[in-house]
Prior knowledge:
Blueprint: H1 4-12, H2 22-50, H3 55-80
Helix pairs in contact: 2-3
Pfam families: DUF6284
Amino acid sequence: MDHIVTVQEAVTAFAPWMEPTDAQLDAIELEMPAILADVDLIDAAIAALETRPAELDARRTRRARRKALATRVVLANRAGCGEAA
């Protein structure tokens, strides 16, 4: 029988120094528009799956896809110019 102590040690073994660095948090902040655009795309896809397909759902999905791609292009251009890591 495994003791809970071994599991607890693995869970609590993380030290405060394992937190994200400022550079990692800045990178996340820089990518936040793309993350939110991806969330909108997933929401649109889920909404389209939950109901009978309608033209409004298709438009919403296309709009969300275009927004996600546009934000990715902006991030790629920033990275190409040396603004992002």
